[in-house]
Sequence to fold (310 residues):
Amino acid sequence: MKMICPTPWLGAPHGYLSDWVTQRWVQLTGRYVDLEQEAWLEGPTGKPTGIGRNFFDELAQEKGLKLQKDRPGSGLIEDFSALASPSFEASRVQTGVADFYEHTSGFDMDAWGEWGGLFRPFGRLLAFLFSRRLGQLNVPLSSLDTSRGITSEIVELVEPKTGEVRYTAWVRQMVKTGHVLYAGSYSLCRVPGHTGLCVKVVFPLPNGSAIVITKPRLHADGSFSVVSSGAKFGEPGFYFLARNPNGRISARYLKAMRETIHVYGAEEDSVRADHTMKLWGLTFMRLHYRLRKKRTAWVIDETMGYIRCN
Fold:
């Protein structure tokens, strides 16, 4: 059955009304940024029509990049030790946790979520106005949404001549509904308001993006957290970017939005993660992940030029 769009289409330059209103809010309340000078805010942006699971396939084609999916050994962070700094001892993090970040393609995923009671209507409104239509940021509204599991795919966009990885994306999709949970580009970056490298995730949105910049944190038991808490622009936290009609980019820092992802070793060959999202200090969403090493055979993928899991 075709989904009825809850918001009118304004034409190609603007997109849908709800998206355009969000972009105008960013443009009016944010600040102009020069991405050459503030490269820590750079990342892929979406078209007015939406995102979806094939966004990075289309981006690779547009930029003339080679596409690699679930290459054996590929992960969100190429070298976890690169996060080491005077404030973060990367070498003390549990081996299984670092292994997950460096070899994410070798893990299967289960996920389930729970909304804070007062925020549940907000979640349904968000899904109705934005997430379902965009094919992006479809956080589960009930346990049934993830009852058949989550697909997890590492997508790399590579320079064909040099072999340099330009983008590393993690695309997660709910099997039961087909909705894209997250489609985001992962990298490390250095922001003006924090010493040491941070983990940056860019979620493409129509004519812009949502960017979550998190600082690493070590716990006494060797578990690991990334935290998107800051006090002002230039520090770790949540950012909206929007492209203006004149081609300039506006950025808005959302101090009220905070996220913490706590990753820790569980049973053998698996790790778990607890993802907590807060707005104005109130927890509105908790996501829980179980990440288990794949137990599958390796086969030769002649089309991609490497051996992969089947």
